[in-house]
Amino acid sequence: MDRRVGVAVVGALGLLLSGCGGGGPQSSGDSKLSGDRIVLGVLNDQSGVYLALSGTNSVKAVEMAIADFKAKHGGDAITDDITVETADHQNKPDVANTKAAEMYDRLGVDTILDVPTSSAALKVADVAKEKKKLYFNISGATTDLTGKSCNKYTFHYAYDTYMLANGTGRAVTEQGSKNWYIVYPNYAFGQDMEKSFSTAVTGAGGTIVGKDATPFPNDNFSTFLLKAPTLKPKPDVLGTMQAGGDLVNLVKQYNEFKLREKGVGLSVGLMFLTDIHSLTPAALAGTTYTDAWYWNFDAENRAFADRFLKETGSRPTFAHAANYSAALQYLEAVQAAGTDDADAVVKQLEGKSINDVFLRNGKIRAEDHRVIHDAYLAQVKPAAEVTEDWDYVKILKTIPAAEAFRTPSADCKL
Amino acid sequence: MSSFLQHTFDGLVSGAFLALLALGLAVIFGMLRVVNFAHGAFYMLGAVGTYLLLTEFGVPFWWALLIVPVALGVLGMGVERAFVHRLARLDPLYNFLLTFGLTLVLQDLVKLRYGTQSSPYATPSALAGTVDFGLFDFPAYRVFVLAFAVVACVAVWWLLGHTRVGMVVRAATERPELSRALGIDVGRWVMPVFGFGIALAGVAGVLAAPMRAVNPLMGADLVIVVFAVVVIGGLGSIFGSVAAGFGIGLVQAWGESYLDQWPIVAQTSVFVIMAAVLLWRPAGLFGREEAPA
Questions:
Q1: Strands A38-44 and A82-88: what pairing?
Q2: Is A215's CB within 8 Å of B267's CB?
Q3: pLDDT tens per residue, range A173-210
Q4: Are A154 and A380 a contacting pair, CB within 8 Å?
Q5: What digits encode the pLDDT tens for the residues B50-101?
Q6: pLDDT in the model for residue A76
Q7: Which residue, A157, A268, A382, A411, shows the most beta carbons closer than 10 Å to its own?
Q8: pLDDT over 90 for what percent of chain A?
Q9: Where do the TM regions start and end (chain A) (predicted)?
Q10: Does position A101 have pLDDT exceeding 80, yes or no?
């Protein structure tokens, strides 16, 4: 009995879904676009810890991309009807899953963008694979998106844990800070980051003199900060994998315990411009980290940042710029393919070399859909050198695209 | 040796926060029999208020240390009159739900207005340096926090033990019915005591602003540990909550520094201790088992 009800419900759902899916293109006559329009979906955190680094301002960035696309192609654009749908996934995988399915099925979304929080990011990749619709992950960090969880419709656009660890861990070690003490939050992201960093540091000839897992979330890091200078040999640098509020706690207390004065530098695994803004550059002066993009790197970036500032009141993080770029490149691919059919667009994107405001020497790898591009080793300026709001870091070195990301993983079978 | 002393000192500082918060909870529970789940939210309001006083009105830390607890105390009294009071006669579960709901409302109001980004707050310049204890040095601000918390706890203890108000509160805590029978107007003291407990949470919040991330969720995680502390010390026991606060601070600091191969041990120690204490002494280390009514 139960099973028959179940089958009936599934069957009814199947009918409904196929009805919806089939209805669009059929009614649209000779148009090559489903529903005669293009809909971009921005799914991210709009109320929690990752609101500032991406959130609603990424929606603005995507709107800017649409405006630029229309301005560039004018009357030749494949369509004039390009809209944005957006939803808050609250960093919860189950919410992300539901919202993603709703976007693809009910709201006619052609591609989903952004999706921070690795666990949520992976869930959406599953949905994209199942629905055969495109998905550009921007602010999720896990390398699994281009590893064992990769699929034909998912692209990983801005950064990943390998890029962060390889950039910061290697560069800082090569610059002479050989001895590392790593503290990381005790959950998937932190453990991933710790492993990547340890590999990068030892690979560059450095030593991990100590590593500690901390509670997550945590408001008191004093034990680890007291311990740092007493380790033998004394660490040259404290590598923290904390993010968000925990990072703020740790940096505040790092300054309180005067570790920099005691010869222990600070290196941050993942940091966004908005984190520096909320901690103030003075609290972070001298800290090195890897950035996927910096708004004041050159004139092109700055021009974009000026427009963004006018729209939102703040300067863009790399996640904002990457959302802009991904939206623009998706629209260009649809234009080139002459259709929004997912398989045709994927074919357009695979292997494509791109240079735009976000992607420098960018390339969409066909093997695993990792989008590689130049990354940057950044250092927070001392307070005295900060002359403009939001201009908090100097770029120490550009990490070429080929070195910045890992080689395609054998685990990935598209 | 010096590192042991350092870790011990560090444990006492984090214990100071737990003790201040637990003390407020204990005072409130003793008098009202209300488990105030919103305590963490008031702690958060203390820190956010300190930040706002500085950024909006230019009020420095030292004045905030006075203004914020008083303001929160008044707010607490308002909450008692408007909500808690009305549920006093019902099952304790109602007030538990009420204060839990209040937590969510307060957190989201702050989120709505100021976002979830952590706000910067600098250590007061007079305390920005370190204090040299010979064997080790320690951030001056933390030394101040510890001293301040100890003074506050002693003051509360003195207030309860040696003043008429304190006598009434103790009488009402230990034998409310008998106190009423003797003509003591217990009801009169309920509102101020609730406000006072909230003010203590406010003090902890102000003290936290310079050393911890100021954001809407800062109280949510801490309050869970504080509840464990209160249970360990004995619900309603003033001395118990303070002693357990400092004790748990020490256990956490020692655990994190000497059991660092097993981070999970240090992280769960509070709750393991709580479970053990409950098995051994269900009323907590310093609590008194209530005779069945």
A1: parallel
A2: yes
A3: 998 999 999 999 988 789 889 999 999 999 999 999 99
A4: no
A5: 999 999 999 999 999 999 999 999 999 999 999 999 988 888 889 889 999 9
A6: 93
A7: A157
A8: 80
A9: none
A10: yes
Chain B residues within an 8 Å CB radius of A48? 116
Residue A284 CA to residue A280 CA, distance in Å, equals 7
Tokens at residue B172, please?
């009402």
Tell me the nearest-neighbour CA distance from B241 into chain A, angstroms: 20
Class of domain A35-159+298-373: alpha beta
SS3 for A295-338, per residue? CCCCHHHHHHHHHHHHHHCCCCCHHHHHHHHHHHHHHHHHHHHC
Of the ranges A47-56, A347-356, B79-88, which is most confident? A347-356
- A143-202 residues touching B, CB cutoff 8 A: 186
pLDDT band per the 50, 70, 90 thresholds, residue A24:
very low
What does the alpha-carbon distance between residue B248 and residue A22 come to, in Å, rounded to a whole number? 62
The predicted pLDDT at position A20 comes to 41
User: What is the reported pTM?
Assistant: 0.81
Q: Which residues of B touch A (CB under 8 A)?
A: 3, 6-7, 10, 13-14, 111, 115-120, 123, 130, 139, 141-142, 208, 210-213, 215, 217-218, 221-222, 252-253, 256-257, 260, 263-264, 266-267
In whole angstroms, give the CA distance from residue A149 to residue A121: 10
CA distance A170 to A164: 10
Among the partner-chain residues B7, B120, B208, the one whose CB lies closest to the CB of A280 is B120
Task: State the pLDDT confidence band at A221, using cuts at 50, 70 and 90.
Answer: very high
**Chain B residues within 8 A of A278 when measuring between CB atoms:** 117-120
Query: How do the domains of chain A map onto residue ranges?
Result: 35-159+298-373, 162-291+376-404
8 A C-beta contact, residue B289 and residue B282: yes
Contact B212 A283 (CB under 8 A): no
Interface A–B counts its CB contacts (< 8 A) at: 88
Nearest-CB residue to A245 (from B111, B210, B217):
B217
Question: Amino acid identity of A46?
Answer: Q
What is the ipTM for the molecules in this complex?
0.84
CATH number of A162-291+376-404: 3.40.50.2300
Decide if A223 and B253 are in contact by the 8 Å CB cutoff.
Answer: yes
Distance CA A245, CA A240 (A): 13
Chain B residue with CA closest to A254: the answer is B211
What's the gap in Å between the CA of A171 and the closest CA on chain B?
28
* Same topology between domain A35-159+298-373 and domain A162-291+376-404: yes
Q: Place A31 in a pLDDT band, splitting at 50, 70 and 90.
A: low
Query: What local confidence, expressed as pLDDT, does residue A13 receive?
Result: 42
Distance CA B16, CA A149 (A): 46
